[in-house]
Structure formats: structure tokens, C-alpha cells
Amino acid sequence: MSADEFDPMIERMFAQSPRLADEALFLATLQARMEKQSRWRVLALTAAGLVGGALAIREGLTVNFASGGETTLDQGIRAAAATAQGAAQSGLDGLGVGSVDLSSGTGVLAFWIVAGAMAAVLAAGAARLSQDV
Amino acid sequence: MGKSLRDFHDVELAAQAAAGGRREYGELVRRHGSAVRGLLRRMGATPSLSDDVAQDAFLQGFQRCSEFRGQGTFAGWIKKIAARLYLKRVAKEARYVAEVETDQADVVVDRGGLMDLDEALKTLNETERVCVSLCHGAGMSHPEIAAAMNLPLGTVKSHVKRGLDKLRARLQPAQGDGRSIHVG
Predict the structure, then answer these.
(1) Quick one: fold of B107-183?
(2) ipTM summary value
(3) Candidates B59, B132, B164; nearest CB to A34
(4) B164 with A31: Cβ contact below 8 A
(5) CB-CB under 8 Å, A23 with B33
(6) Within a 13 Å sphere around the CA of B159, how many CA atoms are in the beta-carbon half?
(7) Interval B42-72: pLDDT, tens
(8) Contact, B53 vs B40, CB < 8 A?
(9) Which one of A28, A33, A67, B143 has the lowest number of neighbouring Cβ atoms within 10 Å?
């Protein structure tokens, strides 16, 4: 047999791999690892979201309660917040609930209630995921 | 009546797996898991190591499924991933010695005259076995093997040629007659 005939024969022999008896177990183990990996990813993303949210809230509070010596950064944040507030207010107007004033005491309270509820939901999800993992 | 997963082509399953379809990917694993594990064992991995590396390869394959666009077969694609992972694993353990000759000169074969590939591969030294398996089992080119094994291209070609010569010497007589043979 020449090399030209032998090489394809070897490739055919390599391609003929017997099915292993424990392939179902192999698949089950792999799927369990995939599931675990996916949970860790969700957990990491949730944690990152919580940390980011907490930092944002902290920054917001710092800006609100900062007194005197206002820096350019503070002014920028204040301007951005005012823009966001204006956009949110116009959105509320569009939804027909324009009577809710976000800059009023009631509006701020509603904002914090919703933010708190979202943080609680995220924390509950993270806790549940950590139990699963 | 809807199509069962078994009716889909590998390329279709891979496309659905790339979109997050775990059931579809499971079908690909069911189809090719044994072949990948078999290749790793032929490269010299123990059964437990081959299973471990194959699992890592399939996990990596799932994350990189969008890279497979049907050029070549899915089996070839996943085998290359597995082979590279295996090489990295053994490189970490520094198991490779470039020129180790563990010639098993006296191999008695009695399997109805047929010496199978797995037995024949055992007569090659480790580097030859890996080179031949990568070339003919995983479908890697010589330059790809050289890069993966960090060996000169000429050395890889020599290993493949020597390995094939040994396989030819052992497999051809066994296929010719139907008797128990003594090779070496």
C-alpha cells in the first residue's frame, strides 16, 4: 500500500471512534458545569449591578448634601441631574401623570421608594442565586 | 409534527447553541463527545484526563460557538479546541521531551489478525503519537501543530512521518493475513 493510500486509511481509522458507554454521564456532568457557570455569571453581573447602584446612590447623596465650595464636577453633575429630571418630568407629562413633580418632596419620596424596591428585588435575586450556587 | 433535535444538522445546532441553546448544544455533545474523548486518549491522555479536557473543550466550545460558521465540520472544530487544551495541560506538567524513544519493539497481536489503531498507536513514542493524532485525528496542518506544540516545523514533519511509518509497518501486515502476528 502506498503512502497515498495509507494516509486516507489512517484518517478513516481515526474517524471511526467507538461510542463510549458513559457518554450520558459525560453529558450530564457537562450540563451541570454549564449550569453552574451560568449561575456564577448571573451572580457576578448582579453583584456588579448592586455595587454600581450603591455607588450611584452614594454619589447622588453626596451631591445633594454637599455644601459650599462647589467644584466644576459638582456643577456638571447637578446640570446632568437637572437634565435627567427634566426628561423624566416630560416623560411623566407624556404618560398623563405630569402632576407628579419629581423635584417636590412627594416626587423624591416616590423615587426613593421605587429605587429601594428595585434594590430589594436585586438583593433577593442575588441571595437566591448564591443559594443555588 | 416538529423536528426532533436528532434531525438537525450540526451547523444548525451550532447556530442555535450560539444563541444560547443549551439543549441544542447538548445534542452536539451527545454526537461528538465520544470522538473527542477518543482522540484525547489516542493522544496519550488517561481516561480521567481525557474526560476532564473534553469537558473543558466543550465548555469553551459553547462560549465560542458563534465562531463556528460551518467551515469544516463541527467535530473537527471541537477536536482542535480539545487538542490544543490537552497540549496546554501537558505542557504545564512538562511531560514532553522532544526526543524520547520508547520503542515498543515486541508487540504481540492476536485480535483475529487485526491490530487496531489504538494498539498500533501505543508503539509510537509520545511525541510521534501526538503529532500523528493532531494531523490525522484533529485535522491540524503541520504549521498548526508546530505552533501548538512549540516545535520547529521540520521536527513536526519528521515526527509525523516516523509515526506513520511505524503505523504502516504494524497495521499493513495485520490487515493482510488473518493470523496472530508478532511485530517489531
Answers:
(1) Arc Repressor Mutant, subunit A (1.10.10)
(2) 0.74
(3) B59
(4) no
(5) yes
(6) 30
(7) 999 999 999 999 999 999 999 999 999 888 8
(8) yes
(9) A67
